[in-house]
Amino acid sequence: MSEQRHGPMSPQRQDPKQQPHKAPVKEGVNPLGWHADIDLDIDWIFEGENLPERPERPPRPERPPIEGQPPDGGTEPPTGNAVLIFEDTFRGGKLDQAKWWTRYIYGGPDGPGTLDFLNDEVQRFREYDNHRMSDAGIGLNANRGWDPQDGSGVPEIYPSGMLRSKPVFDLANGDAYYFEIRAKVPRGKGVWPAFWLNSDLENPDDWNSCYWPPEIDIMEIVNNGQDDTTSMLGCRCQMNDWDANPQGYQITNWCEGYSPENTCWYAPFDFADDYHLFGLKYQRGKLVFYCDRSMVMECDYTWKLNWDSAPPAHILLNLAIGGNWAGRYGIDNDAFPQALDIDYVRVWSDKAQQLSQGPCGKDYELDAAAARANASGPEAAATSEDKRTPPGQAHTPPGQQGPRGRR
């Protein structure tokens, strides 16, 4: 009997510290960061002989130059992944819309592929100076005040920026991939920057065929000022069937300071102080998460739907604001504007790849929108074609299931 499919379905994630289920951990794993086979004679462990080397904690990289422009990390690939198959260094003065959409893949205010928020987040992803290009890369900017798309002055709405890759990556083909960004996160209370992978359409001709899970969170740094801070790096995978575990999710190894229970690394520094490298190596079911090219966590996780193999993955980079997790103790409005600053995005593989393109999205007029918003102000920002996205309400076609939300 085949499992019933429900779609479209967007991510349904929660604060890992408040989830009733915890990430599965391989039996026999030692909390110090190395593990032993429990079926073997373990006397040698207590005798301290021939211990496996503990993974080193990621080192603090060099600070960027005083003027704030980070050095481009170059194209040197990580060990074993030699072919650069995708990159953007954001140095062209304008976002390359041959590579990026600026909204989620789900149904939104302008149809399929235009959803501008998930769950109870209070940002709305926009194109009004929310993708600021410079010699230092791109800043995904979040502001407070009025929403340029509808001209409102609702203070609870925070126009922000996000990127979704048009090229997609077939994680089920058995090839090795290494995804990496170099980025600096904002530090204000209430922010939630993220770098993650989500599945594309199962059927390119049917936008309704977008299902969840799978999802891989390479970097999530939530700052609610108390339970979560900018010294905590979330590295995790997502699933919604904890009993059957169809993705085979199991944490197998981690570095000092990583909590398998909370699926985050408690770093000995503040990520908001410097640029850092955030990376993921994936080869059909085996994952290694990296910070500054040093291992943070290893796990098993197969890129698949609950019932079948999953479509290829797209890359997501976004700066979310508020909601149940990041906004648990309020939002520091005095800290705005804020940005997730990205030096580059690169993907390597162990062989050359001909990447296909995700079909679902809309190319918004970034320059025209920014010029209209900046020149005219909130009173003249809305046009007859603009449609408002009320707080907490998603736009979906009649009869379709709305998104469930990331947290």
Structure classification: mainly beta
Q: Low-confidence parts lasting 5 or more residues at pLDDT below 50?
A: 1-7, 29-70, 371-407
Note the gap between the termini: 31 Å
> How many H/I helices?
4
Instruction: Kindly identify the CATH topology.
Output: Jelly Rolls
Number of E-type strands: 21
Provide the CATH architecture.
Sandwich
- Strand residues, percent: 25-35%
Radius of gyration: 21 Å
Give the H and E element order: HEEEEEEEEEEEEEEEEEEEHEEHH
* Major sheet: 9 strands, antiparallel
Q: For the record, what CATH class applies?
A: Mainly Beta
**Count of individual domains:** 1
Characterise the protein shown here.
Strands 1, 4, 5, 9, 13, 16, 17, 18 and 20 form a 9-stranded antiparallel β-sheet that branches. The chain has an 8-stranded antiparallel β-sheet with strand order 2-7-19-10-11-12-15-14, with no helix packed on it. The longest helix has 11 residues, at 366-376. It has 4 helices and 21 strands. Helices cover 6% and strands 29% of the residues.
Keywords, please?
mainly beta; Jelly Rolls; nine-stranded antiparallel β-sheet; 21 strands; disordered C terminus
